[in-house]
Amino acid sequence: MFGWSKRQQHTVVIDDHPAFAVDKNETVLNAALRHGFAFPHSCKAGGCAACKCQLIEGKVRELTDKSYLLGQEDMDAGFILGCQSIPQSNVVVLLPVNPLANQLSVGTLRQQIPLTHDISEIVISLDDPLRYLPGQYASVSALDTGLPARCYSFAHAAPEAGAQEVSFFVRRIPGGGMSNWLLASDSLNKRVELRAALGEFHLRDADGPLLCIAGGSGLAPLLAMLEGAAMTSAVNRPVSLLMGARTQHDIYYQDAIMALASRWQAPFDFIPVLSEEPADSDWSGRRGWVTEAITPDRCVGAQGYLCGPPPMIDAAINIMTSHGVASDAIYFDKFSDQSLTVR
Amino acid sequence: MLSYMRFFLGPLLFTAVTLLMYLGGVWLWLPGVALITGVSVLDQIFPFDVKESRYRYAWITNLALYLSTPAALVLFFTLFWVAGSGTQDIFGVGAFITAHTGIDVVAARNATPWYHVTLMFVPLVIIATGVGGLAGHELTHRTWNPFELWLGRITMALNWGVAFPIEHVYGHHAYVGTQKDPATAARGDSVYQHLPKAMHRTVINAWEIESTRLARHGKSFWSPSNVILRMALVSAATTGFAFWAAGWTGVAFHLIVCVSTKVALEVLNYVEHYGMVRVPSQPVQPRHSWNCNHMVSGVITYNLTRHSHHHANANTPFQDLRAHSEQPHMPGGFITAYLTALVPPLWRRAITPKLLEWDKTQADRSEFALLREANIKSGWDELKQSVANTTQDQTVIPQGGLGY
Predict the structure, then answer these.
(1) How far is CA B397 from CA A77, A128, B97, B252, B394, in A?
(2) First to last CA, chain A
(3) Do B333 and B272 touch, CB atoms closer than 8 A?
(4) Does residue A152 share a domain with residue A77?
(5) I want to staple B194 with a disulfide (CB 3.0 to 4.6 A). Which of A41, B165, B189, B228 is the partner?
(6) Domain count, chain A
(7) A144 and A28 in one domain?
(8) Is the confidence at residue B396, as pLDDT, over 60?
């Protein structure tokens, strides 16, 4: 009745959720929280950018110089800070497309399980669960040490709601900082910080076979990926898992891989290839370079997933493309195994 | 009406104390000491102020805030006048006072023995922080209002507070309660251990934050758009004025006040956030600051004492901050806590029960692991009784958080 006396309320739509009304001078974030929407946020002072979102429609009044927080690309794409934006019209915002990015979790280093003479599985229990796609990695830093953060791939798949406990395969490196810290017995029960989920390495939808090639600790993301795939219809895709190692002592996780293979609904070939196994040993499997085990028949209609040292990846890509695999069907994650950086 | 007028008390009292400094002698320090003592004592006498009045006329409370800038200008002018000697009398202010009151203030100044001047710097730390820092802090948060932002930065720049307006908003508020925050003191750190680290990192962080912003605009650090450099120009002009007014004595007086107010502001941060712990990915909650509802402290500091709400929602104007009486309360009120912090053994005795209580009644389970570590690292045995240290680890998904 007295429509003229009532200030018209603006509304906000987040992603494809129902619209809600904003009070006078209320920010997008505060309105969202008031309506029970779990809008990501942290400092509410325009200092942390946890609440950044993309303005798709409408106008907002911005309360701070957002170039303190956002890069040029983000600003060009219309990103705003939820806690510093007051709608001046009805607005539509999108939360960052990748909800897995920008997660930060603190945890405690709980276990160090030796797998080979130089690779161990380390287990971290987290205060807040982390969500990631199997195949992605985290940047790990040790609180209270000056060591630079290093990246490691998650070695196991995560439940839908996120993993409360995560594992990484870590190789001991002479003079290595972070890796050797993670493996030191003193570091048990110490606090670590993880930034996740990083990287574009994860299983892509298709029906064809999976040709997976791992070198050294590069088994981790492939193992996580296959564990994850086993819980989906990808369990019907034929798998060849080629694992390159130096000697029999360097092969690990064989039992878990065999268990995975036995649950698989399609052929699952696990082929370890040893490059430095003594000629007179009892090893009856393949010898030579792991890339020599890439045969034309394994490449037919296949997607390639490669993880390991850069020379191995480069050689594998060459061989696979020569067998007719399109280069955009080959996904890889290069580890610099010999340098200080180990994922 | 009183609820509005009380916020004018700060700038008016500080200005009164400042003007009395023209009389020289004990007047240089006695009124300041009396004011601080008065606030501390009255805080204990008055009941807690948990009233959350509704302020319809924000322009009145804003005016109280803006008054701090002239109050700060008067304070620094007076300081430089006091630094003068012989016939120095900037703008003939001394002659003006003498003509109107019959008191020969220039002679009184010149006859003041050195120990009164030395003593002057003690209360002046609090007075200068009061007029410069408190309103400056509130105004630099108002990033949406160019005038208020400008006024806040100028006021802080008068005493070389050029890093604070940047670091505080874009650093401290984002990192509060975590190890990345320069202003959150670790459990076990005395104020003297904490200060050098905090002051150093505040400057470095401000520099980095501003450089990053400039780089995003394709500009170098040495650009006219650099807010820190622009504020530094104001600071340098103030020091230059001090030199013009009273030579090197003026410069020395200015720098003593600048350094001591930086220290004072960090002590303030020390008592506001001592030993707080937050999981970095979790939102800042009211419990991540020590709150204080003492009435006189609140009035004098533009409600800075209502720090819990300030950090949980930094865009709230000072008059609308909520009392949060259920939140952790700093020991003995603002000024008392502040003075206690300066004597580390006393601080330890006062804050330990508070920390243990915080762990028990305020901390989220997800913070226990961090707390346990902080308590052990503190080296304070009494903190090992904390529930965080005696409780078995449990897997707990924190409340709230980044809800995707």
Answers:
(1) 33, 6, 67, 55, 10
(2) 66
(3) no
(4) no
(5) B189
(6) 3
(7) no
(8) no
Does some domain include residue A27?
Answer: yes
- Which of A43, A84, A128 comes nearest B284 by C-beta? A43
Residues A216 and A286 in one domain: yes
Q: Name the residue of chain A whose CA is nearest to B310's CA.
A: A45
Q: Can you name the residues that pair with A272 across neighbouring β-strands? A: A243
Do residues A254 and A328 share a domain? yes
Residues of chain A positioned with their CB less than 8 A from the CB of B169: 45-47, 64
A50 touching B, CB under 8 A? yes
Which range marks the domain in which residue B342 is found? 2-389
Domain-located, residue B321? yes
Indicate if A146 and A175 belong to the same structural domain.
yes
Q: Is B372 touching A (CB cutoff 8 A)?
A: no
Minimal Cα distance from A100: which residue of B? Answer: B404
In a domain, B401, yes or no: no
In a domain, A339, yes or no: no
Residue at B396 is within a domain: no
Give pLDDT tens digits for B75-103: 999 999 999 999 999 999 999 999 999 99
C-alpha B42: how far from its chain's center?
Answer: 20
- Residue A155 inside a domain? The answer is yes
Mean pLDDT in order along chain A per 10 residues (343 residues): 60 90 93 84 88 94 91 88 95 82 88 93 93 90 82 89 91 84 93 87 88 90 93 90 93 93 94 92 92 93 90 90 89 58 32
Name the domain count of chain B: 1
What sign does the CA torsion over B63, B64, B68, B70 have?
positive
CATH number of the domain that residue A33 is part of: 3.10.20.30
Whether residue A232 is found in the same domain as residue A314: yes
With beta carbons less than 8 A apart as the criterion, state whether A66 and A6 touch.
no
Q: For an interface test with A, which of B166, B207, B281 has the most A Cβ atoms less than 10 Å from its Cβ?
A: B281
Q: Is residue B363 part of a domain?
A: yes
d(CA A126, CA A159): 14
The Cα–Cα gap between A165 and A152 comes to 14
Q: The pTM is what?
A: 0.67
**Does A83 touch chain B if contact means CB atoms closer than 8 Å?**
yes
Q: Which domain holds residue A174?
A: 103-198
**Look-up: residue for tokens 């003006």?**
B96
**Interface check A104 vs B, CB under 8 A:** yes
Whether residue A197 is preceded by a cis peptide bond, meaning omega within 30 degrees of 0, is yes
**Structural domain includes residue A182:** yes
Mean pLDDT over B21-37 rounds to 95
Give start and end residues of each alpha helix (H) in B67-158. Answer: 68-83, 93-101, 105-110, 114-128, 135-140, 146-157
pLDDT in the model for residue A100? 78
Compare CB distances from A41 to B283, B393, B397 and report the shortest one's residue: B283
Interface check A27 vs B, CB under 8 A: yes
Considering the domain architecture, whether residues A66 and A117 belong to the same structural domain is answered as: no
CATH code where residue A129 lies: 2.40.30.10
Best mutation target among A26, A28, A44 (most B Cβ atoms within 10 Å) is A44
Supply the CATH number for residue A235's domain.
3.40.50.80
- Among residues 232-261 of chain A, which lie with CB inside 8 Å of chain B? none
Q: Are A317 and A225 in the same domain? A: yes
Chain centre distance of CA B126: 9
Q: Residue A127 is nearest to which of B144, B216, B369, comparing CB atoms?
A: B369
| Residue B375 · residue B352 · CB < 8 Å | no
Q: Does A115 touch chain B (CB under 8 A)?
A: no
Partners of B176 on chain A (C-beta within 8 Å) are 43
pLDDT at A3: 46
